[in-house]
Design brief:
31% helix; 7 helices; Dihydrodipicolinate Reductase, domain 2; 8-stranded mixed sheet; 2 domains; alpha/beta; Rossmann fold; 313 residues
Length: 313
């Protein structure tokens, strides 16, 4: 089976991850990298072509099977439109765009031309959430989500905390519950240099309460989910890559003594699973090989971005 030649646009934090994953994948070849920070217009190092401008790439005569865009968000639409016009499979890091019109334009363009398009909602590929989805949980009382990070440097040019962090958890909710109708019941925000850095969001979904705490002002990196059902509590730690599961117990008060019958507890570890970024790339590869437009994925991209946009506005 021939390797797919992939072009990477943008070599920032996420770009470096994509580069490593492409180079370590048995089915892909890193054709080239484009980044405006490169001092030389064009050079070849270890068989990889490096450009400081996308216009220097000879799409007409070079064999490129797909493009991954990991540049700054404000460049996504223009670059993405150009790639789709070339009728090439496209992957764009999240957020695809913070502008609904731009997002819809790209999605509709891909659907109209039957072109492969994927958005960088990396957490939906996490084996932990694939496991949770397979459980088809019912009788959910509440979901508490904490996604906290330490302060980021201004030089990273990230969008506000909603598009940077909360988008991940909204996309997971969409993945787990088939794009549920979330009703925002309450919110609280904190700003720094006119940028939203902390957001606490309370949603109602059917009879369940969903609380999302997302922040870039924390002293500690936290990635945790608590899903409480009538019979079990699923305590998910995405950093430790495990799920603690607590079955319902009971508490009795006999006479003057307090006797606590502890909940049955078990732990599932996902530490040895395939890296999530690799799973994400594999989905892109499969779409390209089968020339398959994943309509369900495109709906999830639109759903998650629209919810965050509505909250942001």
């Amino acid at each position: 089976m021939n390797h797919l030649n992939l072009l990477l646009v943008g070599l920032g934090n996420m770009g470096k991850i994509h580069k490593r994953i492409i180079e370590s994948n048995n089915n892909t070849n890193l054709f080239g990298v484009v980044d405006v920070s490169f001092q030389k217009k064009y050079e070849i190092k270890k068989g990889v072509k490096y450009y400081n401008n996308l216009n220097l790439v000879d799409f007409e005569n070079e064999h490129i099977d797909g493009v991954i865009i990991a540049s700054t968000t404000n460049s996504h639409y223009k670059i993405g439109k150009n790639i789709l016009d070339l009728k090439l499979p496209l992957f764009i890091e999240k957020p695809v765009s913070i502008n609904k019109k731009e997002l819809n334009s790209l999605l509709n363009n891909a659907k109209r031309q039957n072109l492969v398009f994927r958005g960088g909602l990396i957490e939906i590929y996490n084996p932990i959430f694939q496991y949770i989805k397979e459980l088809k949980l019912k009788d959910i009382i509440s979901i508490h989500i904490f996604r906290h990070s330490q302060s980021v440097k201004n030089s990273r040019n990230l969008e506000n905390v909603l598009f940077d962090l909360a988008l991940h958890d909204i996309s997971i909710l969409g993945y787990l519950f088939n794009n549920p109708k979330l009703k925002l019941k309450g919110s609280n925000y904190s700003f720094k240099r006119k940028s939203m850095e902390t957001a606490d969001l309370m949603f109602k979904y059917n009879k369940s309460n969903i609380f999302i705490s997302t922040s870039r002002e924390s002293q500690l990196k936290i990635r945790k989910w608590n899903i409480q059902t009538k019979n079990k509590l699923y305590h998910i730690d995405l950093i430790q890559k495990n799920i603690d599961i607590y079955d319902s117990g009971s508490i009795k008060y006999p006479d003057a003594n307090l006797l606590s019958l502890k909940s049955n507890h078990s732990t599932l570890s996902f530490a040895n699973q395939t890296e999530t970024a690799q799973i994400q790339l594999n989905e892109f590869i499969e779409n390209i090989r089968k020339n398959k437009v994943d309509g369900k994925h495109l709906d999830l991209v639109k759903y998650s971005h629209n919810i965050v946009s509505d909250i942001n506005n």
